[in-house]
C-alpha cells in the first residue's frame, strides 16, 4: 500500500427535495428550489475502508422528526443495500469521519459497529449545546436524545488538523458549523478534499460563495479561502454531479 | 421628569421576503416594514436613536421598494413633534446599516454613538454585506455624512441617567440596543436584533426567532439570552405595532 493509494466512491443515501435555493447560495433571492442528495463517501486503500458522513435516517417516522418536508429513500438507497452493492461489510469499517454533526451527516454512524468515529472537538462540544436556532439541525426534538448520540461512545475528537492514516487527514473548516471539518484524501489522481457543508455544491466552491446556513460568516469565508489555496480538488457534500461521476482517485 | 420614548415612522418598505425577518420561516411570503426613529425625552436633551433611510437611494442603490411621505421625512417628523434638531446632543445608531443611519447629518450638534466594533465592520464588511453599509464604488456611505461626529463606545455604556447602551452582536458585529428606564417600565430599543414582536415572542419551536440576516448566529443567540436577563420590555425595530403605539412611558 502506498500513501497515495486511496480510492473514493460517492454514494447516495437519500434526496432532500425542494430546498429553498437561499439555503445553498447565500443571498440568492430567486425563489428557486433545488434537490440535494445526501452523500456518503467510501474511501478504500489496500484492505482498509473508511467512511465519511453517514447520511440521514431512512425510516419515514424518523425522517419526519428531522424535517417536516420529509423525503423518500428508495429501497436501493438504504445504507445496508448501498454498502452491499459496493462490497463493504460495515463490520470491517474501523474508521468513520463526520464532517460535522448535523443530522443529515451522521444518522447512520451506528451501522458501523466496530468503527471509531472521528470529529472535531469543537463540533462535539457545540452539538451538545447548540443555540436554539440550530437545535433542529443537530436533531434535537422534544426530550429525545439527538441522533449523533446513537454511537457517541465510539467518538474520538481531534482538535485542528490531524493525520488519521497515510494519505488521509482532516482540516478544520469552521463557518457552516463551529467545528466543521474537511477530509483530505491523497490518491493516484491527486489530492481531494471532502468538504462537508463548507461546500454544498461545485458552484459554492467556484464562486467562494457560502451556503445560506452558517454559524459564523467570517469564519466561513476564511474556510473557503483556505480550501482554494490548498489546490485540492473539492468533493462537495450535496451536489448531484458528484454522484454522476461516482468514483474518484482511480 | 421621567424618561419617555416616542417612536416615529420615517418611511415604509414593501414586499421583502419573509425569511429575512424570521430565520428559516415564511418561504414564499413577503412582509412590509416601517422605518422607525426613536426619541428619548425627559433628560437634559433629547436623544435620537436611529435616523432612518434615504429615500433617494432606496430603489436606485438598494432595489428596495420604499415609500416616504413629506410628513415622514425625519426633519418634518421632528418639527411636527416640537423637537429642534439643534437641541439634540446625542444620536445613537443601533448599527450602521443604511436604513438606520442615513440621516445622522440632520443633527448638527450631536455626537453619534456607535460601537467601535460596528464602525470597524461598516468600514470593511464581508462582501455580501457591503450593500447594507453602502460600501461600493458608486456611492459614499450615508453613515459617513456625519462621520466626523461619530464617537465610538466599547461595550455596555451609560450615556445619560437612565439610558444605557447594551451590546447585542449577531445581526452585525457591533449591534447595540438602548435600555431606557421610563417611569413604569424598563424598555429596550432593540435595534435589528428584534425586527418584529414575533421575533421576540417566538413560536412552538423556539423561544425567540432570529432575523434572517446575521453575521454570527451563535453570538446572536447569546444576545437574545442577554435580553432575557435585562428584565425589560422589548421594542422591535421594524414592527408597525410600535408605530401605532407611538409612546412608551
From TrEMBL, chain A:
Family to which this protein belongs: Belongs to the metallo-beta-lactamase superfamily.
Keywords, ordered alphabetically: Hydrolase, Metal-binding, Zinc
Protein name in UniProt: N-acyl homoserine lactonase family protein
Cofactor: Zn(2+)
Pfam families xrefs: Lactamase_B (PF00753)
UniProt source species: Rhodococcus erythropolis
Origin organism lineage: Bacteria, Bacillati, Actinomycetota, Actinomycetes, Mycobacteriales
GO function terms (MF aspect): hydrolase activity; metal ion binding
Automatic annotation (TrEMBL), chain B:
UniProt cross-references to CDD domains, sorted A to Z: AHL_lactonase_MBL-fold (cd07729)
Pfam families: Lactamase_B
Keywords for this protein: Hydrolase, Metal-binding, Zinc
InterPro entries on file: MBL_superfamily_lactonases, Metallo-B-lactamas, RibonucZ/Hydroxyglut_hydro
GO terms assigned for molecular function: hydrolase activity; metal ion binding
Gene3D superfamilies: Ribonuclease Z/Hydroxyacylglutathione hydrolase-like (3.60.15.10)
Domain of life where this protein originates: Bacteria
Cofactor(s), by name: Zn(2+)
Protein family per UniProt: Belongs to the metallo-beta-lactamase superfamily.
Protein name: N-acyl homoserine lactonase family protein
Organism classification: Bacteria, Bacillati, Actinomycetota, Actinomycetes, Mycobacteriales
